[in-house]
Amino acid sequence: MRKDIQHFESLFRRLQPGLFAYCCKYVEDEELARDIVQECLVQLWENYETINGSYEKYMIVAVKNRCISHFRTLRLQSKFAESVRLKIKEFEFHPDTPDPLTDIYMKEVSVLLQEYIEKLPAKCRKIFIMSRQEGLKNQEIADRLGISVRTVEAQIYHALKVIRIGLKDYLPFFCFFI
Length: 178
Fold this sequence. Notes:
Elements: H1 5-27, H2 30-46, H3 55-93, H4 100-119, H5 122-133, H6 138-145, H7 149-166, H8 171-177
Helix pairs in contact: 1-2, 1-3, 2-3, 3-8, 4-7, 5-7, 6-7
């Protein structure tokens, strides 16, 4: 089966509102719910040809699993944040004692992050930088570049996926120190 863009767009328009409402019941944050649904729809497109059965059921399960994964990540980040808070308290007691390991680690992560950003395709890199470093909203980026918001979202998703995979061993540290 070949990817049918028109069928997918029709499917997107039909499923997105319900999936968004369903996701909001779990996460209670509309922006996060939009991101989760968008990620799941991108995942659907990537696996479009291999899905057997109902796309609707696939998407409901995908959104539910992504929400569960989000809460697991929050729990792990909370535990890590607590250990970071303890490290900060330790630093407060000994402020004159530099932590060379943290400095080295931060430099290493920063260099790796920049390398992964530089490896992104030019358009993807530009959109990612406009979003994350310049702080522009997706609509502003779309307007400036003359592209759709959906394209902006897909490019940011792709960039984050590449970076997340590349920095998977560094992410817990990266999330709290950068």
